[in-house]
UniProtKB/TrEMBL annotation:
IDEAL domain ranges (all copies): 62-100
Superkingdom of origin organism: Bacteria
Organism lineage string: Bacteria, Bacillati, Bacillota, Bacilli, Bacillales
Designated name of the protein: IDEAL domain-containing protein
Amino acid sequence: MNNSKQEKVSVGDWVRGFAKNGALIQGYMENIDPIDPLFKIRVVDSDDKDLIGFSLNMDDSLIEKVPASHTLTEPQIQYLIDVALETKDKEWFYELTKALQQYKQNYAHKNTPEFADFTMKR
């Protein structure tokens, strides 16, 4: 891996791309190994539902950084709620649950994926 690959993404960045089976994935960067040319991505949403929750080792040519935003999709909020539960962070859990309820109220009647306004404070 050369330095230009490391400059593209950082641990914690949201990324999207294609898994080896061709499935579209979205997740966040878990690990960048300076020796290994693969990035470790935690999948939070995919058209292949079997990949959700797993970590995939992916080449940088198969992924792109998702532009920074203060908005989240429903699967991202649901995944972060799971993280809040695992870390026993009650305040964050309530904050995310409220954001999910707001998302569902605002976008339940639409068939297209939308984004919920939510500012990450972490």
